[in-house]
Specification:
Elements lengths: L1 H18 L7 H29 L4
């Protein structure tokens, strides 16, 4: 009997998870955003490093 209750709960949870919008997958949106954020951070760090490097000779 416990196994049947678990199956019913699992089916109910799946229905709750997929009823809101079953055709909307968030993963294709999150990956490019995270890559662009990390790319912007890397470029800012590289720019700060190069700025510091080229300012060393001017002092």
């Amino acid at each position: 009997m416990s196994n049947q209750n678990q199956v019913q709960k699992q089916v109910a949870n799946q229905a709750i998870a997929t009823n809101s919008n079953p055709n909307f997958d968030v993963t294709p949106l999150i990956m490019p955003i995270s890559y662009s954020i990390s790319g912007a951070i890397a470029l800012a760090a590289l720019a700060a490093f190069l700025r510091q490097l080229f300012n060393l000779g001017r002092e």
